Amino acid sequence: MTADPDTDRPLTSIIDRVAEITREGPVSLDRVVGAFEQAGFAAMLIVPAAAVVTPLSGIPLFSSLCGLTIFLIAAQWLLKRDRVWLPAWLGRQSLEGDKIRLAMDKLRPAARWLDDHSRKRARFLFRQPLRALLPVACLMFGALMPLLELVPFSSSLLGAAVCLIAFSLLTRDGLFALIALLPVAAVAFALTALL
Predict the structure, then answer these.
(1) For the segment 95-139, what is each residue's pLDDT rounded down to a tens digit?
(2) Are 84 and 28 in contact (CB under 8 A)?
(3) Where are the transmembrane segments (predicted)?
(4) Quick check: is 4 in a domain?
(5) Is 164 inside a domain boundary?
(6) What pLDDT is attached to residue 69?
(7) Does a structural domain hold residue 5?
(8) Whole-model pTM above 0.70?
């Protein structure tokens, strides 16, 4: 059974699937990400991004591992690979089932709200060349997470941005991607104003 990004509640179905996989106890990152391979890159990005939004981000190096996973998934999406490859040492990282399920339970109300309020908007974002910006943004956010490991809540904010971008790709609701990209636009504007 895989998460179906075409259901009426794509984000909730992904969270429920992660909770289901972790019922058996500790589970490898390879297994969790692999469970969403058929659902596509956007669904695979949501898994580590959603995890880093939760209190799990307080575990030392957890944000770095999630950021690296996001970076690798987004990079391979841009390279148009058919399957996601994770280094063996990263794929073997084990996640405690109880902690993951508790984290997913905390995310479920927000996931339901997003699912209930999504509709097809700002679809210009999904046409080239703008569409390529979305995985590029995910790649950048993932790369930044290990660098910001010691800055409180920074990884959670980046994880939320990746979640919104991936969710917008699943639902074709560009409004959520625009919300996620606002901080990037603000930083870019500030940098150009200084130069």
Answers:
(1) 888 888 888 888 999 999 999 999 999 888 888 888 888 999 999
(2) no
(3) 59-79, 129-147, 153-170, 175-194
(4) no
(5) yes
(6) 94
(7) no
(8) yes
